[in-house]
Amino acid sequence: MGLSSNNRNLLSKMATNDGHGENSPYFDGWKAYDSNPFHPTNNPHGVIQMGLAENQLCFDLIEEWLKGHPEASICTSEGVDEFKETALFQDYHGLAAFRNAVAKFMGRVRGNKVTFDPDNIVMSGGATGAAETISFCLADPGDAFLVPSPYYPGFDRDFCWRTGVQLVPVVRESSNNFTLTITALEAAYKKAQYAGLKVKGVLINNPSNPLGTTLNRETLRSIVRFINEKSIHLVSDEIYAATVFSQPDFVSISEILEEEVDCNKNLVHILYSLSKDMGLPGFRVGIIYSYNKEVVSCARKMSSFGLVSTQTQHLIASMLSDNDFVERYIAESAKRLALRHTTITRGLAQFGIGSLKSNAGLFFWMDLRKLMKEPTFEEEMKLWRVIINEVKLNVSPGSSFHCSEPGWFRVCFANMDNETVEVALRRIRTFVLQSKEAETPVKTHRWRNNLRLSFSSLRCEESMMTPRVLTPHSPIPHSPLVRAV
Ligand SMILES: Cc1ncc(COP(=O)(O)O)c(C=O)c1O
């Protein structure tokens, strides 16, 4: 919503500036979805939400656990005895049971190759709050972090908006499958210095949103050497750690710290949350795990602004302490993510649409370069508008992830049911077929425009689909302005 100049004067510069980033196409796509959300029977021609990195594939397992453990909730007759104590507890260290369970879970998600000390855990309102807190702790306004691009758009809001910190992209390119190189890291460091910025650290996101890829051991070692040499921080956002569904296995920065003898652990901090790995973004369980006791202490004081409610801590402590459940959940989730990923990427490949090979995440990085007339960001936006307005799929353009090359799009695949996936694939197929037709020089094609590919109104098979009821996995309309995932 635009602000009147009257209000602009009445409110603070911080509150009214653009740092939140909600004017980007990333959020515009959600607005398009919100105004016309797909529903299999009520609105079969609506927009399908493929711009939301939610993990909705294993809710049945969590619901089953909740039904079997009514004592874990203070809102049941079995659990109400804990009500008073839970309602009163507000220590910013958090419940010991919660920190213990989260520390153990973090170890389990990393294959039990490393252990985490519950005393180094600071809670926050999701990874969003954790990111801002760590930014406040490590950097002053004007200081910078280097971040490999393409990167999660929310980082601009979380690391920079209210802190005044800046992000400097470390360019990753398609020519080497968007691999992070130390040459690019060095170049970004020099560029930042040349611009007069004080570089306070490197921010990595492993597994990566939006690429869906993991950093290998060698790259992680090089990054650790790099930050040690420069004596700057390393923040590793590992919120997709348990979404790794195929080889290679996930390597956490915590593993590297146990191997590298010459590493100053005080420089390393991990961001985590249950939003993706457990599919619980609404619970707002975020974690800063720092190897630096002073950072733990500062972050804990700051966490007063975004604690996890004790009721949630109580429930999560109980759920994550159930080893059998955790084992089953992690294994089943990876299996379902793998299946969904294969279904969509193979489906697209059949119509000639490629994507970056990936092994993790709730999304993949779709390559539509050959559908563009020219390799420019203007063409990318034109193509994106066709996809959202005519194909009626909300995918996110690469430019909103600060990708340096036009033509890439992030496609989320775990926030919908199988039937919606089928509809999405059918729409894409129709789009590609019609676009191929459009490429042949037929004078009468009324819908040919300046894109190499174009799309008419959807006359796809969807209209012939049998009516269906909304299943629990169908996307539900939400306000686009309250989330960045
Ligand atoms: C890489 C990354 N970090 C942080 C977040 C924020 O997560 P949370 O819901 O825990 O605040 C997201 C959400 O999409 C993300 O993709």
Automatic annotation (TrEMBL):
UniProt-listed Enzyme Commission number(s): 4.4.1.14
Record's keyword annotation contains S-adenosyl-L-methionine: yes
PROSITE patterns for the chain: AA_TRANSFER_CLASS_1
Known cofactor(s): pyridoxal 5'-phosphate
Gene Ontology BP annotations: ethylene biosynthetic process
Record keywords: Ethylene biosynthesis, Lyase, Pyridoxal phosphate, S-adenosyl-L-methionine
Domain Aminotransferase class I/classII large, first and last residues per copy: 48-428
InterPro entries cross-referenced by the UniProt entry: Aminotransferase_I/II_large, Ethylene_sulfur-biosynth, NHTrfase_class1_PyrdxlP-BS, PyrdxlP-dep_Trfase, PyrdxlP-dep_Trfase_major, PyrdxlP-dep_Trfase_small
Reaction it catalyzes: S-adenosyl-L-methionine = 1-aminocyclopropane-1-carboxylate + S-methyl-5'-thioadenosine + H(+)
Pathway named in the protein's UniProt entry: Alkene biosynthesis; ethylene biosynthesis via S-adenosyl-L-methionine; ethylene from S-adenosyl-L-methionine: step 1/2
Family statement: Belongs to the class-I pyridoxal-phosphate-dependent aminotransferase family.
Protein name per Swiss-Prot or TrEMBL: 1-aminocyclopropane-1-carboxylate synthase
Native organism taxonomy: Eukaryota, Viridiplantae, Streptophyta, Embryophyta, Tracheophyta
